[in-house]
What we know:
Radius of gyration of chain B: 24 Å
Low-confidence stretches of chain B: 86-141
Shape of chain A: globular
Largest sheet of chain A: none
Structural class of chain A: mainly alpha
Distance between the termini of chain A: 42 Å
Oligomer: heterodimer
Number of domains of chain B: 2
Number of helices of chain A: 10
Order of helices and strands of chain A: HHHHHHHHHH
Strand content of chain A: under 5%
Mean pLDDT of chain B: 76
Number of helices of chain B: 8
Number of strands of chain A: 0
Shape of chain B: extended
Helix content of chain A: 55-70%
Low-confidence stretches of chain A: 1-33, 133-140
Number of strands of chain B: 9
Distance between the termini of chain B: 66 Å
Radius of gyration of chain A: 20 Å
Largest sheet of chain B: 9 strands, antiparallel
Amino acid sequence: xxxxxxxxxxxxxxxxxxxxxxxxxxxxxxxxxxxxxxxxxxxxxxxxxxxxxxxxxxxxxxxxxxxxxxxxxxxxxxxxxxxxxxxxxxxxxxxxxxxxxxxxxxxxxxxxxxxxxxxxxxxxxxxxxxxxxxxxxxxxxxxxxxxxxxxxxxxxxxxxxxxxxxxxxxxxxxxxxxxxxxxxxxxxxxxxxxxxxxxxxxxxxxxxxxxxxx
Amino acid sequence: xxxxxxxxxxxxxxxxxxxxxxxxxxxxxxxxxxxxxxxxxxxxxxxxxxxxxxxxxxxxxxxxxxxxxxxxxxxxxxxxxxxxxxxxxxxxxxxxxxxxxxxxxxxxxxxxxxxxxxxxxxxxxxxxxxxxxxxxxxxxxxxxxxxxxxxxxxxxxxxxxxxxxxxxxxxxxxxxxxxxxxxxxxxxxxxxxxxxxxxxxxxxxxxxxxxxxxxxxxxxxxxxxxxxxxxxxxxxxxxxxxxxxxxxxxxx
Lengths: 214, 252
């Protein structure tokens, strides 16, 4: 069989049977996403449980690393940044406040700061090398905030349950109207609309700006 | 007037509807609704412009560096992996092509094309295949189980199941599925290649269990994940996206 990590089947139900039955009855149509996973990661992380750091790494290292790669263009630098982000996140975990925003956005905030540091280091190195500051402005930094936003959207879309994910893929990448999506998928228009409304609302909350990252 | 609700704002953000005069006036004067609409519109515009964003996982050395720098415990030594989610990863590229509706259909891997097409040809064929499969393949006494999978439910489902690959004395293999799920609608059994999200349909599951013959050229090393989906009766041969259970085959 293939490498287990990449091919893992859905993990066993994370809730107790009673809870999932209740959830299934009450909010079946709302369980588009697995928000409880993120909440559990945040709780472990905040509590100083190393498994919370490991889970946060599993969950967000892709976004962090992709952002660093896009911004810095050099894999080795990106790897350094990714490593530094999780190290400083763990050391500064007391400053993470779930009330101010989700952990993913907090980590992305740290990533942006580490990227800025890396740019600054490059600039310093160049200044020393050339003893000139004339090229500094040219390099500029790519619009990190925008790249971060796009990567977060991609990541969140990948985490939607299959049906809403399919609907959102058609709405975004396929550029289909809501009725075209209903026609294409056979999903009733009202359901399409509610998937889109909920998924968009979720994106909105997951991307919320966050303050106070270390 | 009252604030605009999420439904209305979403429709405006997607350009599916335009605010009427009263709503426009409200948006002009209500900073809350206006800010919400601006934020949602921006999301839609960024979402629609996504193209080449790929998430790249860092190499394992990054975690090892973190682990050693922070002096973490043995318990978290293994590199934490992202959970593989449903096979819709392929959807994004597929919907990008001009033939939108057709393009949405998932690629059926070449190797499994025959199986896929036969099962896809019509629901009737699928049902027959399932029934024939179930009745003709009376398990020979000499068959042995070569791989099996525990099938775990998706969050929307109260379900469980098992998949077994049995090999007869002739070397022919068959997949035996047992599913426990609320009894309703059409169920289809799939093999998934987790590397490419490629799908092979094995046919429709009739009732709680079924046996499906596995052609020799289906590579279970590659198509290592078994999935049972709920399918609408719409004649669309693609996976509905509504998976009930899924599990990875392991050699026994």
